[in-house]
Amino acid sequence: MKLALFDCDGTLVDSAGLIHETMRRTFDKFGKPEPRFEDTKAIIGLSLDIAIARMQGRPHVEQDDIEMTAHYKSLFSIVRQDLDYKEPLFPGIREMIDAISGRDDLLIGAVTGKSRRGLKLVMETHGFDKHFVVARTADDCPSKPHPAMVTECCDETGMNAADTIVIGDAVYDMQMAKAAGAKAIGVAWGYASVDELIANGADAIAYHPNEILRHFS
Predict the structure, then answer these.
(1) Domain tally for the chain?
(2) CA geometry: angle 89, 149, 27, nearest 5 deg
(3) Cα 162 to chain center, whole Å?
C-alpha cells in the first residue's frame, strides 16, 4: 500500500498566470513595485503570507504582509472571474489520475500552499474530489517545507512516511518530503528547474505525467 501526495499549483494545474495577476493587483493596491512573473513563480508553493514576505525580501511575515495577504484572498476569485480562468490541468494529468484512482493498493492526497477553499474549487472544477481521500493546505499546517502536511496525511490514512510519495514541482515540495521521510518526485513541467529539484532532494524526475505511474508499481 502506498500514499501518493500531490502538490497542486504547478503540478496538477497551471495556475501561475492567475496567481501572478492577483499578486500584481495586490502589490499595486499597496503602492509596491510590480513583481516580475519570475518572482511570482519562485514563491508558488509557499503559504501566501510567507510568499508575499519573501517577494519583498523579508525573512519573516510582518503586519504589511498580513494585510496584503487578506487583500490577495479577497481578490483571487474576482481575478479568476475577470480572466475566465479555470486553472487548467497540465496535459496528461487527467489520464494519470484516472489510471491510479481505481487501484486498491494506492491512496491519493493533496499537499498544497493553496487555501482549503482554493483546493476545493480546483478539485470540483476538474472532478478530482472523489479521488483524493486526504488533503492538507495552508489553512491546516505550517508552510512548506515544514513536514506537517505530509506527516498529518500519513497519520490520517494510517500510512508510514516510508510508503509515501510526494509529487511536486517546487523545491519546497522536495524539502518537505525529505523532512518527513517520504520519497520525492519532481515534475519537469512546473515552475522550478530540474536542476533545482535534484539539488533539493528529488529522488526522481518525471518529464510527463505518465512517467509517474512507474513509481507506484
Answers:
(1) 2
(2) 65
(3) 21
pLDDT, tens only, 121-136: 999 999 999 999 999 9
Give tens-digit pLDDT for 7-49: 999 999 999 999 999 999 999 999 999 999 999 999 999 999 9
Do 103 and 181 lie in one domain? The reply is: yes
Do 72 and 146 lie in one domain? The reply is: no
Task: Please give the grid coordinates belonging to residue 214.
Answer: 512507474
Confidence (pTM): 0.93
Instruction: Determine phi and psi for 203, rounding to 5 degrees.
Output: -80, -25
Sheet strands (E) in 44-181: 106-111, 134-136, 164-168
Domain of 170: which CATH number?
A: 3.40.50.1000
Give the span between the Cα atoms of 110 and 45, in whole angstroms. 12
The helix/strand count (H/E) of the chain reads as: 9, 6
Kindly report the average pLDDT of the chain as a whole number.
95
Judge if 126 and 165 occupy the same domain.
yes
